[in-house]
Amino acid sequence: MEAVPRMPMIWLDLKEAGEFAFNAAVKKSAVSVPRDFEGCSTLRKYLGQLHFLQSRIPMGGGQDAAVPVTWTEIFSGKAVTHEDIKYEQACVLYNLGALHSMLGAMDKRVSEECAAGAFTYLRDHFPHSYSVDMSHQILSLNINLMLGQAQECLLEKSMLDNRKSFLVARISAQVVDYYKEACRALENSETASLLGKIQKDWKKLVQMKIYYFAAVAHLHMGKQAEEQQKFGERVIYFQSALDKLNEAIKLAKGQPETVQEALRFTMDVIGGKYNSAKKDNDFIYHEAVPALDTLQSVKGAPLVKALPVNPTDPAVTGPDIFAKLVPMAAHEASSLYSEEKAKLLRDVMAKIEAKNEVLDQFMDSMQLDPETVDNLDMYNHIPPVLMEKCAALSVRPDTVRNLVHSMQVLSGVFTDVEASLKEIRDLLEEDEAQEQKLQELLGRVPPAPGSPPGLAEVSKECSKYLELHEKASFTNTELHRAMNLHLGNLRLLGGPLEQVRAALPTPTLSEDDKQVLQNLKRILAKVQEMRDQRMSLEQQLREMIQKDDITTSLVTTDRSEMKKLFEEQLKKYDQLKVYLEQNLAAQENVLKALTDANVKYAAVRKGLAEVEHKWNTTVQTLVGSYEAYEDLMKKSQEGKDFYTDLEGKVAKLLERARAACQASEAQRQQLLERWVGTH
């Protein structure tokens, strides 16, 4: 796998700057940066100087020195203006992340962690209401995309360095986890509406990568099993890797050639591994192949992180060009208060993330999707793939008749050839019997020299044709068997749609079963409600922290009173924290109720799964019969052509056999007459 072609990566466009009443030369150098690491350095310096400026001059929203700042919103292309220097900072920070993403997508494949760091700082320290491309949902999506791509780069390096199989599997599993988070965001209706047309392209690529890197993870779990001589486990891991890769290939339709090349390369590796492992286990090791769900799941190893952004780092910003404008004490106190807010946010987020992790693991183990928990709607309709076949047969009403007629014609020619060959064989056997009788009669008297010409050649050709006929007979029998197998399905597909629908299995639920389903859906809705409320409260907390600026108060507060002021100001977050604590505490009861409901659902779920399996099997069988029609017609025609040609050859051979046998009989008569004359 170390030579696998690289997968493409997603990178973000940079925002375009508009009006900002700042020094023109400074502005130009900051918004027209080169697309390289020098450009990243320029953006960091400009960001730092803006921060220094904002801490000294009241240029924030609603402040005395605020001036219009205009930037173009990425997705709509509209110019968005705010009288707030923080908007300028936010847009520069966004471009820093976007530029790092662009550089990360290039051949060097570095910089994604820097991009994630820029977007994380932007999400956690700036308002999300400036423009839709800097909303909380979009920034969280960008962060997960960048972390996923950073982990993907680490995976590439790990495979090139031939790291241990188990470590590579965990790194790959973490790529999957990051992309799953990104996919959840992409599937969010609000996020999709914000992204517009690129949402489908991103979602398709990310979904394909989820299956692809899951396949890579199980490939390396299989390699680890191989190293541990667990040959049964090796087979199931390679089988799972093959299944997931096939899903990735299905989702890769329309992706560039680089993706197809990577998938083909990986298929060669995984397919070869699976075939070799299965063959070895079948013929050599004979180990039981365990079910995949009985093996320990691969836990991701997050070895990348969002690199922190420090806008006031002098190593990045250079000298503070506004150092003499305002007292630094107020700025320092504001920074301390910001750290108190950040600590509060970290403490709350640690609790939220711990609960979210438990919730995610629990829901993953349950494998319950509220949208498809009963999947009953699918049984109300004939699936499109089957409707397509029914429609195709409706405009070809003679399909079954043509197939039956073709096979009848083939059977007729087959029978004629078989009869002719039998007649030739009978003639030859009769001639041989007459010859033996003559020899018994003549005794020791030698027969007249010379034998009828052609009998040996006829016998030789007859044997050849019999051999051809015998081989073709097996093919003919298989063809008839296949036809009989598909004929009923083709008649069904060509008939009324009601009959097709009636042929598909449907579940039968009792009133108790329906009650179980309704209760399960209700609790799943509660889980989603709890998630949504938690996200909303977190969003409120973040926005409240971002808007919480007490600089004015700090300027008029004595240094000795700073701690007391901080404590008073932080009390404004107490109510939100109480709501969040209540939400987190409710999780245990909700999950207990869900566990109980799931236990009752188990029997219903098993029944629904069995019906769904039968339904899918029936659909696949009917589709398979339709797709087999053309092949049957082609093979039937090939059979007719073969036997028509053979019939002509056998007919000529029959004529020769008759003539040769007549000549042989005449010769025996002459010999008999001479023998009688001498005795």
From TrEMBL:
Keywords: Coiled coil, Cytoplasm, Endosome. GO terms for cellular component: endosome. CDD domains: V_HD-PTP_like. Residues 27-359 form the BRO1 domain. It is found in: Cytoplasm; Endosome. It comes from the Eukaryota. Pfam families: ALIX_LYPXL_bnd, BRO1. Residues 414-444, 520-547 form a coiled coil. GO terms for biological process: early endosome to late endosome transport; endocytic recycling; protein transport to vacuole involved in ubiquitin-dependent protein catabolic process via the multivesicular body sorting pathway. This is PTN23 phosphatase. The gene is Ptpn23.
